[in-house]
UniProtKB/TrEMBL annotation:
It comes from Brassica napus (Rape). Residues 22-75 form the F-box domain. Pfam families: F-box, FBD. PANTHER family: F-BOX/RNI SUPERFAMILY PROTEIN-RELATED, PROTEIN WITH RNI-LIKE_FBD-LIKE DOMAIN. This is BnaCnng66580D protein. InterPro entries: F-box-like_dom_sf, F-box_AtFBL13-like, F-box_dom, FBD, FBL13/AtMIF1-like, LRR_dom_sf. The lineage of its organism: Eukaryota, Viridiplantae, Streptophyta, Embryophyta, Tracheophyta. Gene3D superfamilies: 1.20.1280.50, Ribonuclease Inhibitor.
Length: 314
């Protein structure tokens, strides 16, 4: 397991290059190095402090965090690292705040991090939990990150300006329940949305999608064996998803009713959809080619509001 170290204690690696040989990385301007760092996990960024004396503390100036609790030996070290990152960036905006945590972290702590990131005008927010699906279904405290309507309202207003958002189904369910009582804020700046489902709750998606008028890309992820749960869907006519252009469904389809209903909803309500990408479960391919499967044929026969939409079956 990688252990984060105080950069001040990391000794710079001695260069093996001849004096006349120029290190191309070291010659890059800081702004370009920061752009590279923003595309790396934070644990890898911290390790660059050992490459040269110039990079000893450079990682601390990166306005992005991509961290997983599994990268740390202790709960306290993880919390301290996240807190220090937010404190260092208190006077500036954040490009990325991506944190993956487990059940040992209290919702109040995660809420505080999200609230701080939002106040720092984070552009890309990704808060994910590693909770087993059954824990989320059985424990309402874990399921509801934000315990009251006022907190949910403040949370949603805060993140409504992000451009790229990844949320777990537990958070989406909170948003869904909130929408039963209060009008959701409009996410005008949201262009990319990834939703990770732990259960068959895809019916919740339309509630959130219709307040994302400029959404271009939607990725629907899920666990391998999502749980079946009872869910009362809000009955209403759904608005068209006029801006949506690309959809990716990560879990291989088995042809189950809820899966096909989701695909049908997206195809029938997206007038400008260019591509819907998905794959079929191996159980559907036994003795048949992909093109011969009943699910494949059903997909091709779905009505499409967009005449130029391609269904890509991997």
């Amino acid at each position: 397991m990688f252990t984060f170290m105080d950069a001040a204690r990391v000794k710079p690696a001695l260069s093996t290059n001849p004096p006349s040989e120029v290190d191309p990385l070291s010659s890059l301007p800081d702004c370009l190095i920061f752009q590279i760092f923003l595309n790396l996990p934070t644990k890898d960024v911290v390790q660059t402090s050992a490459l040269s004396t110039r990079w000893t503390t450079l990682w601390k100036d990166v306005h992005g965090l991509d961290l997983d609790t599994e990268d740390f030996n202790t709960h306290e070290t993880f919390v301290s690292f996240v807190d220090n990152f937010l404190e260092r960036n208190r006077g500036s905006s954040i490009h990325l705040f991506k944190v993956t945590y487990d059940s040992s972290y209290k919702p109040d702590l995660v809420n505080r991090w999200v609230d701080t990131a939002v106040r720092l005008k984070v552009e890309h927010l990704d808060i994910s939990d590693d909770l087993p699906a059954q824990d989320i279904m059985m424990n309402p405290t874990l399921k509801l990150m934000l315990p009251c309507l006022n907190m949910v309202r403040d949370f949603l207003v805060g993140i409504s300006k992000v451009k790229d958002l990844t949320i777990a189904s537990s958070t989406l369910e909170v948003i869904y329940d909130y929408a039963r009582y209060v009008q959701l804020p409009v996410f005008r700046n949201l262009y990319t949305l990834c939703v990770r489902f732990n259960s068959y709750m895809w019916e919740m998606l339309p509630v959130f999608l219709e307040v994302c008028p400029n959404l271009k890309t939607l990725v629907v992820g899920t666990t391998e064996n999502p749980k079946m749960v009872d869910l009362t869907v809000i009955a209403r006519p759904w608005n068209l998803l006029s801006s949506l252009e690309h959809v990716g469904i990560e879990r291989p389809l088995k042809g189950e009713a809820l899966e096909m209903a989701l695909v049908g909803y997206l195809l029938e309500n997206s007038p400008n959809l260019k591509k819907l990408s998905l794959s079929l479960h191996d159980s559907l391919k036994k003795g048949k080619s992909k093109e011969e499967s009943d699910v494949f044929i059903e997909l091709l026969n779905f009505p499409r509001l967009s005449s130029s939409c391609q269904i890509i079956v991997r």
